[in-house]
């Protein structure tokens, strides 16, 4: 999983969002696990699931530290919004990164917003 690649759309690259280092890493990790070819993904297709061990390996941290980092980053991420401006219509869109998270004893399941 350490060979995951993420490309940012131009709209996202120039959008306004403020994330901590761990929130950014979590977003990039999750986005790399999503299928970018799906145009209107269902909830299931917007859901990412991985174990704390997998995340620890990807981030080169201990499993114990991975759970704490993920829990904090996920809580904070669920309060964050993304603002994408469209200069052609002088408008913008605002949405949350994620809208559901489920922690079990072994893994995190995270659902991205539509």
TrEMBL record:
GO BP annotations listed: DNA replication initiation
Pfam family, any one: Rep3_N
SUPFAM superfamilies linked: Winged helix' DNA-binding domain
A molecular function (GO) term: DNA-directed DNA polymerase activity
Ranges for domain Initiator Rep protein WH1: 6-113
Endpoints of the signal sequence: none
Domain of life the protein comes from: Bacteria
Family that this chain belongs to: Belongs to the initiator RepB protein family.
UniProt name for this protein: Replication initiation protein
């Amino acid at each position: 999983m350490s060979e995951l690649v993420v490309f940012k759309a131009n709209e996202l690259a120039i959008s306004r969002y403020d994330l901590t280092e761990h929130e950014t890493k979590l977003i990039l990790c999750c986005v790399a696990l999503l299928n970018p070819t799906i145009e209107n993904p269902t909830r299931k297709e917007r859901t990412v699931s991985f174990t704390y061990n997998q995340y620890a390996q990807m981030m080169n941290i201990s499993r114990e530290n991975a759970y704490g980092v993920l829990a904090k980053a996920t809580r904070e991420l669920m309060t964050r919004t993304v603002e994408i401006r469209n200069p052609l219509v002088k408008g913008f869109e605002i949405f949350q990164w994620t809208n559901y998270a489920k922690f079990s004893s072994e893994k995190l399941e995270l659902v991205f917003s539509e």
